[in-house]
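User: Design a sequence. Structure:
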């Protein structure tokens, strides 16, 4: 390489390079990694002479150009001074005979990233292609630009100012130092004008662009359009057009740590009385702290229907004649439990409530027991076992109750007196399900019914257990040996827009 190449660098940056010489210079820099590396070093010397930002931006635009960009003249005196320093230092310093291209970007974060063929990326030099099968990867470029790549995706790093997105999605955040950063797609390109934007490329090459902040140029072979904040465009076989409606493309703009899920559980084995909790007939605290609002108002000073047996590790609950479905005798209804807010519930979290009953008693028809969740006696979801016509036989039931009326009832299976069962009511992913396990036979069933939307978003939910002989005076005693309530509390939020 000869010093006259550096004269061409000077002429280009000063805006005096003849137009007919520009294609040859661009081709050299595009095809010769060593020339690109020398040009970058040349511009960094300018930075030491106080024109770093202009020089690097102009050089990076040259490396990234497909069409001749608009060139910004800079002070020729400074360029001449820089050239003199280069001659003094020697051209070999700029152009080592066996130099390798410098890294143009660095992988700074990843989340659940899976690479094609399990090939972890090496140094991110010009020409490096990243093939991400799934997950997220964050890249920081030497120019200052930042990209979040969302798998599956393929992107080739052409320079610190230019990438080619073969397919997939990227979210770009571009500071002033990287003004002109370009994302190339099979249909065109997106050029930053100091902004934050997203680009999505389908398998057919069709390209979607969305601007979050600032401004970009979207370009295809036929022309270009400037896009501002909250605007979107598409580039496909029909050409480039501004999308007038909302662009249905979510983009990840930053990798945020997933929420930390921490279970907070109250577990009772009924082996020790708990001071300050609901009391049994003898005044012993049973460990449960609240009743479903609208029920059990008669038992402020202790319930004659409860018997705490710590020596045997159980709580005995004798059913009462009460019925949530018809809102009858609820002042004596036994719907005891806990308030989820005491376990960190705010209205959004998933939760679970469960009990183990070792010996099913024989209730008359529509007598029932199980677990519930709700805000009041007329706004809840409950389930468990309900007695059938034949004495001593039960069916699993799951039901919503809104405005005091049962709805969406679901029934399944057959249980008999004496079976040992475990009942769990769970809200997972915002959806409710009831699971009843027959520990005697090893069978189990899960029921899902229409979602009780009237409970959504309520921060004050109660969960617990109940027992009722709803349409008879035949009372029976449930032996409860385990109770638990769990709230999966979360910290942090996701990053999708």
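Assistant: Done.
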């Amino acid at each position: 390489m000869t010093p006259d190449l550096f004269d061409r660098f000077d002429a280009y940056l000063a805006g005096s390079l003849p137009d007919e010489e520009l294609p040859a210079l661009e081709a050299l820099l595009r095809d010769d990694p060593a020339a690109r590396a020398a040009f970058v070093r040349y511009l960094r010397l300018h930075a030491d002479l106080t024109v770093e930002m202009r020089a690097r931006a102009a050089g990076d635009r040259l490396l990234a150009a497909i069409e001749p960009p608009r060139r910004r003249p800079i002070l020729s005196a400074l360029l001449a001074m820089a050239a003199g320093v280069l001659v003094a230092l020697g051209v070999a310093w700029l152009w080592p005979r066996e130099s390798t291209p410098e890294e143009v970007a660095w992988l700074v974060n990843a989340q659940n990233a899976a690479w094609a063929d399990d090939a972890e990326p090496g140094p991110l030099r010009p020409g490096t292609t990243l093939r991400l099968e799934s997950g997220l990867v964050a890249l920081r470029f030497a120019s200052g630009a930042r990209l979040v790549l969302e798998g599956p995706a393929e992107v080739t790093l052409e320079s610190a100012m230019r990438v080619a997105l073969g397919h997939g999605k990227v979210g770009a955040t571009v500071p002033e130092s990287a003004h002109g950063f370009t994302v190339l797609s099979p249909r065109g390109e997106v050029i930053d004008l100091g902004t934050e934007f997203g680009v999505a490329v389908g398998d057919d090459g069709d390209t979607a662009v969305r601007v979050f902040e600032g401004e970009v140029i979207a370009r295809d072979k036929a022309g270009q359009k400037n896009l501002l904040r909250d605007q979107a465009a598409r580039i496909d076989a029909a050409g480039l057009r501004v999308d007038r409606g909302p662009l249905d493309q979510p983009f990840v703009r930053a990798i945020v740590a997933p929420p930390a899920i921490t279970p907070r559980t109250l577990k009772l084995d009924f082996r020790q009385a708990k001071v300050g909790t609901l009391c049994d007939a003898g005044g012993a605290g049973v460990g449960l702290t609240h009743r479903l609002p609208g029920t059990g108002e008669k038992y402020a000073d202790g319930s004659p229907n409860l018997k705490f047996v710590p020596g045997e590790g159980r709580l005995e609950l004798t059913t009462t004649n009460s019925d949530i479905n018809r809102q009858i005798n609820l002042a004596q209804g036994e719907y005891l439990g806990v308030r989820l807010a005491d376990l960190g519930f705010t209205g959004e979290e998933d939760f679970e409530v469960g009990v183990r009953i070792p010996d099913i008693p024989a209730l008359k028809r529509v007598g029932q027991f199980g677990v519930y969740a709700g805000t009041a006696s007329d706004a809840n979801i409950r389930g468990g076992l309900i007695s059938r016509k034949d004495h001593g036989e039960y069916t699993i039931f799951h039901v919503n109750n809104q405005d005091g009326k049962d709805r969406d009832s679901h029934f399944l299976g057959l249980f008999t007196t004496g079976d040992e069962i475990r009942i769990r009511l769970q809200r997972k992913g915002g959806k409710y399900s009831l699971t009843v396990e027959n520990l005697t036979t090893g069978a189990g069933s899960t029921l899902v019914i229409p979602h009780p939307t009237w409970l959504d978003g309520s921060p004050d939910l109660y969960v617990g257990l109940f027992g009722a002989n709803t349409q008879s005076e035949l009372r029976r005693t449930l032996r409860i040996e385990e109770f638990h309530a769990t709230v999966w509390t979360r910290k942090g939020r996701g990053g999708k827009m």
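The chain has a mean pLDDT of 84. The chain has five helices and 28 strands.
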